[in-house]
TrEMBL record:
It comes from Miscanthus lutarioriparius. SUPFAM superfamilies: CI-2 family of serine protease inhibitors. Pfam families: potato_inhibit. One of its GO terms (molecular function) is serine-type endopeptidase inhibitor activity. InterPro entries: Prot_inh_pot1, Prot_inh_pot1_sf. This is MPI. GO terms for biological process: response to wounding. It comes from the Eukaryota.
Length: 71
């Protein structure tokens, strides 16, 4: 897999620079480079389809941002 730029056309295919950012910040950075991206946010370890869609970018998250509570 190519890391950040495809050989033809220079289109980005991954965004290692967003690791550690909030989901919203990551989406903003990805959409800046790929405005037509269909961004899907999933928990780490989610089962995903193996089909390739050039417009889809998956963001995997694993951090609890707030204390869970009943109610």
């Amino acid at each position: 897999m190519r890391s950040t730029a495809a050989a033809a056309g220079g289109a980005k295919t991954s965004w290692p620079e967003v690791v550690g950012l909030s989901v919203e910040e990551a989406k903003k950075a990805i959409l800046k480079d790929k405005p037509d991206a269909d961004i899907v946010v999933l928990p780490v370890g989610s089962i995903v389809t193996a089909d390739y869609r050039p417009d889809r970018v998956r963001i995997f998250v694993d951090t609890v941002a707030q204390t869970p509570h009943v109610g």
